[in-house]
Structures are given as structure tokens and as C-alpha cells.
Amino acid sequence: PNVVIPLGKDGEPLPVAIHVAEARESTVVPIAATGPDSAYVQTYLDALMHTYLEYTRNVRKVISGGTLASITEQVQRAERDLRAEQDLLRAFQQTNDPAISRAQEAVAVECLKRLNTQLSDLQLEDSLARRPSAPQSDALAIETIQFKMDHIQKSIQEWESKLAGSTNLLFETQRLEENVRRSQSMYERLVQLLQN
């Protein structure tokens, strides 16, 4: 509102002294004003409060508008991220079935158990054939045992590699699924924030 400013005898506006009290732990700020014309001081304070309230409303609108735009942008980005994570998981699952990987992992574990048992048995046979009291004719047996052990050790390496591959596929599936869950959660929180 426009306030008519009364002038003093010298033609200058009447002075108004504003006093703001300190308000600890309160959102209310006490303001007092003094001047030579009490009606003018009251009108001056009313105009001051009106201008201040209008200013704070405008600041809130600007902040709210900026915040809303920022949250909207974040929602859009989160939605794009979520779709990208879902696409990555879908593409991975099209070429890597977790059920098959789990089955391959179980088969690899069983084969490794069996091969390690066979290797242990052959190592025992080998140590028995090499003892000093064993007959000389066991040289062929020792060679045969060594050949079998070499073959089993190569098989163990192959199965360990297969097991590692299956395990890596399962870990990658879990990582991609976790990324989708995290992106989904972020997107839902931002949408909820936007709706409030």
C-alpha cells in the first residue's frame, strides 16, 4: 500500500525509529516504532509489515517454483536411470538365465567334489606304490597313476573355471537386480516428494 509520508516543519519526512527486539527460540520477531505522529507511525508499521509479508510470499513462490522444477527434473532423471537399469537387466537375462547358471554351478560343485576325491585316492595309491617296500614292477603302476592324476588335475581346472563363470554370472545378475531395486526406490521417493 502507498503511505502518505507526513512532512515536518522543515519539509523533510517525519522520522520513524524502528526497534527490533531479539527473539530467541521463537519465529515471532517483536518490532516497535516511535515517532512524533502516532497515527503516521501506526500506518508506517502497517505498510512495513505488508511489504515484508509480500516479500516473503514472493520469495517462497520463487523457492517453491525452483524446488518443484528441481524435483521434477530429478524425477525425470531417476525415471531414465530406472529404465536404463531395467533394460540392462533384461538384456543380460536374455543371454544369461540365472536358473541355468545355478544348475551349472551345482553340477560343477558335484564334479569338483568327485574329482577331488578321485585325486586324493590316486595320491594315496601313488604314495603306496612309491614306498621303499613296494615291488619294482610297480613302476608301470606309478606311471599310470601319474597319468590319471594329471588328467584329473586338468579336469579340476576346467570345472573350477566353469564354476567361476557360473558364479560370476549369478553375481552379475544380483548386481543388476540390486541396481534396479535402488533406482526404483529412488524414483518412487522422488515421485512421492513431488506429489506432496
Can you offer a commentary on this structure?
The longest helix has 58 residues. The protein has three helices and two strands; from the N terminus they run E-E-H-H-H. Helix 1 packs antiparallel against helix 3 and helix 2 packs antiparallel against helix 3. Helices cover 75% and strands 4% of the residues. A two-stranded antiparallel ribbon has the order 1-2.
**Reading side by side through the largest sheet, how are the strands ordered?**
1-2
Following the backbone from N to C, one meets helices and strands in this order, namely: EEHHH
Distance separating the two termini: 34 Å
Rg to the nearest angstrom? 42 Å
Structural class: mainly alpha
- CA-based shape: rod-shaped
Question: What is the strand tally?
Answer: 2
Largest sheet: 2 strands, antiparallel
Spans where pLDDT lies below 50 across 5 or more residues: none
| Share of helical residues | over 70%
